[in-house]
Amino acid sequence: MRTDEEKKLQKQNSDIKYPTYETLKAEQEEPEDYLLFIITDEAGNTIRKIKTDANKGINRVTWNFRYTPVTPISLETPDNTVPWNEPEKGYMVLPGRYFVSLSKFKDGKFTELVSKKEFVCKSLNNTTLPAEDTFALNTFNKKVAELTRSIAGADAFRNELVSKVAYLKKAVLVGADVPTATYNNIINIESDLRDLNLKLNGDQLRSRYEGSAPTSVKQRVDLITGALWNTTAAPTNTFIKSYESAASKFDDILQSLKTIDTSVKQVESELEKSGAPFTPGRFPEWKKD
To answer: What's the CA gap between 285 and 95, in Å, rounded?
Structure first.
């Protein structure tokens, strides 16, 4: 708004006042404006939120009739240059009545622009073996989605711990007062993380040199989402057994991950007590003399 006003003054050959500090600070801290479409089902449950820029003119937004993706949040822009790089997607909603509303976020608050409008999602009837019980299909997809979300989150957290280990090892060697035995603890943590990765993601080394390896928990779930979430057919017995196997093993994996996280926190505590240099994820302590 300020720059538009300055352009008008320039056309009138009028003087332009340099903005005050308060003005520049307010502009710097101004929240981003955007539009938010909220899609709900007949029961009022929120199915999807679609955020888009508040641009001038006629704009188009498309919903793919799917639930929100369950993969970890990423701030990176998806790479669309590779044709087979498909963006993450949730499972398909059931045919039925849905509603969409539109709100504007400006100056730190939401304002409804368009109240709920009804529309109907219909099946194309192009499935060779459509599911007879669509409610059961939706229930199964919901269970798979929750397991997928948890597995993806656990794997992302595992990666964070792996990244921490490299910093912890260096901190032990740099910190003059850190006990050398701490390094052995970190090596054990590193070994535990490798074992957990094998159970969660599979043995890539064995697959590369021997052609096959035991199916991991994540691979079993990926087998389901890669096929079932692209069709409206009922889940096969293979999909059901894969889910049951993955779900039964994931509890132990999650418990192991919690144990490893506790070990990492213990190492971080030792580093802090010994006055070691800062490492990512470690809260610094300070005592005033």
So the answer is: 56
**Coil vs helix vs strand at 109:** strand
- Burial class, 175, CB count within 10 angstroms (exposed 0-12 / middle 13-18 / buried 19+): middle
Q: At 202, phi and psi to the nearest 5?
A: 100, 165
Q: How is the chain split into domains, by residue range?
A: 31-121, 134-273
Contact 276, 172 (CB under 8 A): yes
Contact at 8 Å (CB) between 286 and 273?
A: no
The pTM of the full predicted model, rounded to 2 decimals, is: 0.85
Select the CATH number that applies to the domain covering 31-121 from these four: 4.10.860, 2.60.40, 3.30.1380, 2.40.50: 2.60.40
Retrieve residue 28's tokens.
């710097």
- pLDDT tens string, the chain, 289 residues long: the values are 888 888 998 899 988 888 899 999 988 998 899 999 999 999 999 999 999 998 888 989 999 999 999 988 888 887 777 777 777 889 999 999 999 999 999 988 999 999 999 999 998 877 777 788 889 999 999 999 999 999 999 999 999 999 999 999 999 988 878 888 899 999 999 999 999 999 999 988 888 887 778 889 999 999 999 999 988 888 999 999 999 999 999 999 999 999 999 999 999 999 998 889 999 988 888 777 6
- How far is it, in rounded angstroms, from Cα 202 to Cα 210? 13
